[in-house]
Amino acid sequence: MSIRHGLLALLEAGPRHGSRLRAEFEEHTGGAWPLSIGLVCSTLGLLERDGLVAREGVDEAGRVTYALTEAGRGELWSWYTRPVERAGPPREELALKLVLSVAAPGVDVREVVDVQRRHLSEALHGYVRQRAEILAGRPERPEEVARLLVLEQLICDAEAESRWLEHCAARLLRLRPPQEHGRLPHDADSARTVDHLPQGAPRR
């Protein structure tokens, strides 16, 4: 997610101070991507360094306001018209966790997958419920439509991740049967002992 361009887009409407930008960002995204005021201020500092915003002045509360520069406006519209690069998987932490748990001693990677699937199912139900509530109110205001679009992106992302986790579960089951992850049950131990008795040996 590009915080830089999100702030540039909000500044298109006019000068803003950091606290207002933070509030408007969360309002537009329905709180799906909360920002800290520290992150907003540090990002504004970088945008100012790069010549994309400039200090407009100080409001009555002593807060510095920022305005979009011509270079910032050009960067914003360039961002709107170019595709978003897909440089890696959207859930790097989850992919890393699965990769490392495959070889981690004492860790059942299939249980890691199952835990994530349960969590994802709960989250997906929450997104779907919120979407239904918004649609029931016939959204017309820009912030309502924006919230709806964010929720539908979260739903699509969760559905895609769910399909990937189902694939992971099936793949792991084919490659690593359940008994490879721990001690065999007593009856399976007995069966294996019987199967490995020399031919003709007495069976107890």
TrEMBL record:
Gene3D superfamilies attached to this UniProt entry: Winged helix-like DNA-binding domain superfamily/Winged helix DNA-binding domain
Biased composition (Basic and acidic residues): 181-195
Domain called Transcription regulator PadR C-terminal: residue spans: 91-172
Residues covered by region (Disordered): 181-204
Transmembrane spans: none
Signal peptide: none
Sequence ranges assigned to domain Transcription regulator PadR N-terminal in this UniProt record: 7-76
PANTHER family in the cross-refs: NEGATIVE TRANSCRIPTION REGULATOR PADR (PTHR43252:SF6), TRANSCRIPTIONAL REGULATOR YQJI (PTHR43252)
Full protein name: PadR family transcriptional regulator
Lineage: Bacteria, Bacillati, Actinomycetota, Actinomycetes, Kitasatosporales
